[in-house]
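Hello,

Our lab assistant flagged a job as stuck in the queue for most of the afternoon. It eventually completed. Since we weren't sure the result was trustworthy after the delay, we are filing this so someone can double-check. Below is the sequence as submitted and the structure that was eventually returned. Let us know if re-running is recommended.
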Amino acid sequence: MRTLILFFLFSYEDLWNIIDERWNNQLHKPLHVAGYFLNPEFHYSPDFKVDTKVKIGLLQCIQRMVADPEEQHLIDLQLEDFKNQEKLFGNPLAIKVIGKKTSTAWWDSYGDEHLELQRFAIRVLSLTCSSSGCERNWSAFEMVRTYTL
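-- returned structure --
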């Protein structure tokens, strides 16, 4: 009976809404979008989708992390070769080792013709994620308990 009462007070839908809200607040940031876009394993996957939010997030990240407007412009131009797998990005070996090298090692190996973009990509993909924000935000779930009779 107690489980039934708790179920009605706090349904699974309520839990999913809390999870979705926390997820959206934490992982929809320009830095995460740039990491998604620049990771060759994701970018060259058949499932890769670029919508307006992804484009805006990538550009915001470039503008925040690269102070020089001329360098921002070069990065934007160099992205075309990355998107289209041109120059070293299209080398058969570069394509073959996607997913076998870390994303930063891949950029180190195959981004040499695009120095500004290479430097930016390695910087973005090298950033360490901290779990402290997640621990703080998810600690609310400590209070959720399931009881069985």
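-- support follow-up --
The delay was a queue issue, not a problem with the job. The result is valid. The chain has a mean pLDDT of 84. The longest helix spans residues 12-27.
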